[in-house]
UniProtKB/TrEMBL annotation:
InterPro entries: MeTrfase_7, MeTrfase_capping, SAM-dependent_MTases_sf. This is Gibberellic acid methyltransferase. One of its GO terms (molecular function) is methyltransferase activity. Gene3D superfamilies: Methyltransferase, alpha-helical capping domain, Vaccinia Virus protein VP39. The gene is GAMT. It comes from the Eukaryota. The keyword Methyltransferase applies. Coiled coil: none annotated. Keywords: Magnesium, Metal-binding, Methyltransferase, Transferase.
C-alpha cells in the first residue's frame, strides 16, 4: 500500500487515445497553453540567438502525450527558424527532446508525432529522453531552450511524514492537502521547495548561457496561504482532487472494500506554488534572470460546455471521472489494484453527477508562467 512513495516508477498521465486517456482529457492544460503561447512567442522574439551553432537543442520536460506538446514544439521551432532566417546568414538545424518519466506512454507520443507531420516536412529531429526532471537529463550546457508545461506542480514524492501514521503530518481522511491541517501542508511545502531547488539546479547545468527556461505550472495567488491551494470556495469544492475525490474514497471505506489505512495512505502528489515561493527558489539558485513571472486564472471549461452538462449531469460525471483517470489512474491503480481503482472512479463519477448544485458553479484553475534567461 506504500507504492506511492516510488512515484518515479508509476507517476504519469494515462496513455493511449481512449476516453480516459490524457490525450482526450487535457482541455484545461490546452487552455493554459493557449494563454501562454503569446508569451512564449514573445520570449523567442526577444532572446539572443546562438550564432555559429550547427543545431539548436530544445527540451520539453514533462511532455506527457497528445497534441499540446507537439503543437508547442512546432511553435517554438517555427518561431526560432523565423528569427534565424531574418537575422542570420546561417539557419541551424533543430533538435527536439521529449522527456518524461519512464512510465510515460512514449509509444503514443511518437505515434502522434509521426502523424502530426510528414517526416520530410517536420522541421526538427526528435528524440525521447526518459527520466525525472528533478535529476540531470542532459550534458552540461547542451540545451538552448527548455520548456516545462503543466508538469512542475507534480512532486517527486509524497513526503515521508505524510505516510507515517504516528506523525502529526498523517493526512487522515483526505486524498490531498487543500484545507488540510498545518503539519500536512508544511510537509508538502517543504517537499515542493526541495523539488523546485533540484529542478533549477539541474537546468542551471544543462542550459547554455543565454538560453531560455520557460515554465507553465499550476499555482495559486500570493493572497492565498498554502492550505488554500485553489483560491475561491467554488473552485476548492469543485476541483477533482477535493470533495468528490474524498467522498469516493469514503464510499469504498463504508462499503468495506478498503480499510482506513488504505484510504489515508493515498495522497495526491501535487502542490500549487505561489509566485513568492517560485521567486524565492530562483533567487537561491542564482543561475537565472527572471524576465516574466505572472499568475493567471482560467476556467475549467467553456460556458457552452457547462450548459450542456447541466442538461445531462450523467455525462458531466463521466467527463470528470475521465479527467481523474487521465491524471491519477496509474498511481491509484498502483495503490489499490486494477479492480478497486475502477470502483473508485465509478464512485467518483456518481458523486460528481449527483451534485447538481456544484455543477452550476464554475471551477477556476490558477497557473503561473515563468520565463527566465540562463545567466
Amino acid at each position: 500500500m506504500d507504492s506511492t512513495r516510488s512515484l518515479h516508477r508509476i507517476l504519469c498521465m494515462q496513455g493511449g487515445d481512449h476516453d480516459g486517456s490524457y490525450a482526450k482529457n487535457s482541455e484545461a492544460p490546452a487552455s493554459a497553453l493557449a494563454l501562454c503561447k503569446p508569451l512564449l512567442a514573445g520570449t523567442i522574439r526577444s532572446m539572443e540567438l546562438f550564432h555559429g551553432e550547427p543545431s539548436i537543442r530544445i527540451a520539453d520536460l514533462g511532455c506527457a502525450t497528445g497534441h499540446n506538446t507537439l503543437s508547442t514544439m512546432e511553435l517554438i521551432v517555427r518561431s526560432l527558424r523565423q528569427r534565424y532566417e531574418e537575422d542570420c546568414d546561417h539557419v541551424p538545424e533543430f533538435e527536439a527532446f521529449f522527456s518524461d518519466l519512464p512510465s510515460n506512454d512514449f509509444n503514443s507520443l511518437f505515434r502522434s508525432l509521426a502523424s502530426f507531420a510528414d517526416t520530410m516536412k517536420r522541421p526538427y529531429y526528435a528524440a525521447g529522453v526518459p527520466g525525472s526532471f528533478y535529476h540531470r537529463l542532459f550534458s552540461k550546457g547542451k540545451l538552448h531552450m527548455v520548456v516545462s508545461l503543466s508538469a512542475l506542480h507534480w512532486l517527486s514524492q509524497i513526503p515521508d511524514a505524510v505516510l507515517d501514521k504516528q506523525s502529526p503530518s498523517w493526512n487522515e481522511g483526505r486524498a490531498w492537502i487543500d484545507g488540510a491541517k498545518k503539519e500536512v501542508v508544511d510537509a508538502y511545502a517543504k517537499q515542493s521547495e526541495e523539488d523546485l531547488k533540484a529542478f533549477l539546479q539541474c537546468r542551471k547545468e544543462e542550459i547554455a548561457e543565454g538560453g531560455i527556461l520557460f515554465i507553465l505550472m499550476a499555482g495559486r495567488p500570493d493572497s492565498q496561504q498554502a492550505e488554500n491551494q485553489l483560491g475561491d470556495p467554488d473552485s476548492r469544492a469543485k476541483h477533482p482532487f477535493t470533495t468528490s475525490m474524498d467522498q469516493a474514497w469514503e464510499d469504498l471505506l463504508n462499503e468495506g472494500l478498503i480499510d482506513e489505512e488504505a484510504r489515508d495512505m493515498f495522497n495526491i502528489p501535487a502542490y500549487m506554488r505561489s509566485i513568492e515561493e517560485i521567486k524565492k527558489a530562483f533567487d537561491r539558485c542564482t543561475g537565472f534572470e527572471i524576465q516574466q513571472l505572472e499568475f493567471f486564472r482560467i476556467s475549467e471549461h467553456s460556458k457552452e460546455k457547462q450548459e450542456e452538462w447541466m442538461r445531462d449531469p450523467v455525462s458531466y460525471g463521466r467527463a470528470k471521472a475521465n479527467l481523474v483517470r487521465a491524471t491519477l489512474k496509474p498511481i491509484v491503480e498502483a495503490h489499490l489494484g486494477q479492480i478497486l481503482s475502477e470502483e473508485l472512479f465509478k464512485r467518483f463519477e456518481k458523486r460528481a453527477a449527483e451534485d447538481i448544485a456544484m455543477l452550476q458553479k464554475t471551477c477556476f484553475y490558477g497557473v503561473i508562467v515563468v520565463c527566465a534567461i540562463r545567466k
